[in-house]
Write a structure and sequence with these properties.
This protein is an alpha/beta fold and 510 residues long. It has 23 helices and 12 strands.
Length: 510
Amino acid sequence: MTDIIIVFEVHQPFRLRRDFFWEHKFFRKTEPGRLFDYYFDKAADKEIFNRISKKCYLPANSIILRTIDEFGRGGKPFKVSFSISGVFVEQSELFNRDVLDSFRQLAQTGKVEFLEQTYFHSLAGIYTDRTEFAEQIRLHKELMHSTLGLEPKVFENTELLYNNAVAKFVEKLGYSGIYTEGTERILDSRSPNLVYKAKGCDRLRILLRNYKLTDDIGFRFSARSWSEWPLTADKFASWLAATPGDSITIFPDYETFGEHYWPESGIHQFLEHLPGEILRHDNLETSTPSDVLFKHSPVGEIDVPEPGVTISWADMQRDTSGWLGNSMQWACYNLVLGLEPIVKESDDSELLKMWRYFQVSDHLYYMYAAGGGPGTVHTYFSPHQTPVDAFVTFHTALLDFEAKVRQHNRAANEPFRFHTASGDQYYTGVSAWSLRGLAKAISNVTSESVEYHNSRRDFERWARFSLMDAALALQFAKIAASGMVGNELRRALLKVVESGVPKSAEGRKA
């Protein structure tokens, strides 16, 4: 018996305002609570979301719900799975609550599994510091519990981005399985239709997307030049029945069913008839990822070393080049990463949320410039005229945002790094880019570290040459000359630092 796992990827980004640069709407003052409308095009997002809801989400969910009910009365139930981003749920709540209610109905059937992913559908899983990755997973986990009453057990990283380090981190968070692409590059002539062990992990199991069968639906359904056109449900089910393996995962974008292929193409009829055609084969049944992980033991190991080998489901290369393949993408990616410590020192919920919206992978995806078939796909999804337009808009928004964050935080040119003695080997791992960050650090590092830097007049130099604040530097100089130590020194430094935090920022604080 072969398990057929059908997983639908469900995601919609918040799109940047296309006129942000071209109509010179950047570097303007904004009131607290207004940044979202300043950067993002809510009207366009609403129009797109409601169009896709009408053509895809609502009718497709209705078809699946009816099918689950129909086969629930027989011996072979119909099961499906979804991976839904947090920003998709936010758009459902903003623009069409009926969509979210329909997903709740699906969750209540007990025949639908929802996967975990990053809340913001970001590339945080491949950041060197995975603190943000863990935080976005936590936010998504809480969202799935509060919205659907579920606790996902299987993880899908954004766009199936995967390497050994990602797997090890996900295992530490307690997940039983993880999805990635069944590309030949990691299989070495083995089948994608089996369960594997993640290298370096004890418990985590890998499920692989069968991209050839998935793409038969996602990219070839309406291709009249394809030798197998037209693709019918009975034909596709017969291919599944003839494919060897313990489990076969079909993992398309959900928008395939009504948006990428409009209802007039027959895609809804295909979706409606596919379950019955699958279940009429004696050797096939539909299952969830957790079902398969419980039933089947791993037959081998998947090894994807982190440096230069990370895989994904994107394009022909199936690597990170869909988001990090050119200098425009890298420039924006590094700018987003560089903002993390400054944003997080701000203690401002609005700034943190905007920074995370900038992490949505689609912004980088729109800058793909390699052309060819993959370029056509990237262009189809992009709201911008060209990859360069996407870069200009995103990069300008990021620079504008950085200016606002630095102004809010009184950020320095270079961070203050806390040591316990001279030399890099004595670095504590604590640093501060702003006065807020410096206050937190002074409150938490050891007295030894505070006394060490005070004795060297490091606080004074940082204020004078990195923060460019001569008056604050003078106050630090007086403390350095006072001979204070211990908690007395700590309190004196904190008083000076806190006096320099901009009072105008208090209205923004979370």
